[in-house]
Write a structure and sequence with these properties.
alpha+beta, 8 strands, homodimer, DNA-binding
DNA sequence: AGGATTTTTTGATAAATGTCAAAAGATAGG
DNA sequence: CCTATCTTTTGACATTTATCAAAAAATCCT
């Protein structure tokens, strides 16, 4: 469906596909403290689809049914919506080591309301929820990994909801500075504002203080 | 630690503990389409602790380490925080069939920032995350149940974040009316306002239109 | 039922944030 | 290196939401 940018984007050639999968497998066998048999490693390799996307390329558009959950190997992506007035709101940033998807669309198989695109040239590993569940049934490490990941995602979202409903724009800004200083290095202020749910002008004024 | 209100709250006597567990087991063997062996049913019964709490009683206070994940059998609870200015913000409502916990505290075993209390007389089934994981390892139905529940929770929180950062108070109010009309029947406007992240006065004014 | 308590509404005003327009500054690509 | 484009800042003003106080309405308790 999307072009494969391998041939045009030099940076994406830095690591071979083999090295990427290897790093991924090592990462999460460490994470779960399970040994992975050669057999299991092969099953995992076969189940995930490696995808390289360049800056501004889309993984998903509004109205499409989201087919995959994507693990970010490198780079940065965002999930965002655009409302009737043309206003963009960034729901999540996904950096290396994080998962991204339109969770409603991918679970319910309904057309989604979100766009997902790459903020930087990125590499992701994609898998459908059904395949992931089936892997989890066969490979305990994957099963455990999913439980752990879910726990981590739930913590993050609980915090985000808390800050969105209980803090002023200024407090949210300061909290984000503390909790995610990387965001300010990697993303434009327009994007930070959109993530905080405020206008770029407001963010600019908060910063002046 | 907490008093058991069985003897004082008539309403809580409507169902015997046995009936409650039975309904719970049936509910989720239906949900997961797995048959539960007598053995597995017993293991689940033993792992979950039934707790009856009356209106305004706390399941968790700020500063405590949250020990349990609670499945709401009947009634309604809320998770909320109180900031420096004494301002209450409701992070989630949990009705029958939903799970409630301070996810950060319970997963990281750190003192939490939230209160959890009962809005109505309620019955919950409690289990520690460690025990739940260990059950999941032994009982496929539980394992599958957790994966499904996590999926559902992720959908809900994604929606909540979206509405919190991309909508005005008025839009959030109308959305909540559509998505959760039960809330308006069961909870005071003070609580609805706190859930929407606005003042009760503002909610009252939105309603007038 | 009746008084106490809590919740909801209303009004006047203040504070926070948004809107629109334009300038200044930064960045990307030829 | 220069121009076109995009991002950030600033200003004037509009709108939304909060704050504080008090009245009205609903609910709780005995």
């Amino acid at each position: 469906m999307n072009l494969n940018y391998d041939t045009t984007v030099g940076k994406l050639r830095e690591h071979s596909d083999h090295e990427i999968f290897d790093a991924f497998l090592t990462y999460f066998s460490d994470y779960t403290k399970h040994q992975l048999s050669t057999d299991h490693r092969k099953m995992i390799r076969d189940a995930f689809k490696l995808k390289k996307i360049s800056k501004r390329q889309f993984l998903l558009r509004e109205g499409e049914v989201c087919k995959y959950i994507s693990y970010v190997v490198s780079g940065a992506l965002r999930t965002y919506s655009i409302n009737e007035r043309g206003q963009e709101s960034i729901i999540v940033f996904a950096l290396e080591g994080e998962w991204v998807s339109d969770w409603e669309s991918v679970n319910l198989k309904t057309p989604g309301n979100y766009y997902i695109d790459a903020i930087e040239d990125s590499v992701v590993l994609q898998i459908s929820p059904a395949e992931l569940l089936s892997l989890a049934e066969k490979i305990p490490a994957i099963d455990q990994f999913m439980h752990l990941e879910h726990g981590a995602i739930t913590i993050t979202t609980q915090k985000r909801i808390h800050s969105a409903i209980s803090m002023s724009a200024e407090e949210r800004y300061h909290e984000l500075l503390k909790s995610h200083p990387q965001y300010f290095r990697r993303f434009s202020q327009n994007m930070i504002a959109s993530y905080l749910g405020i206008k770029p002008e407001t963010l600019s004024r908060l910063r002046r203080r």
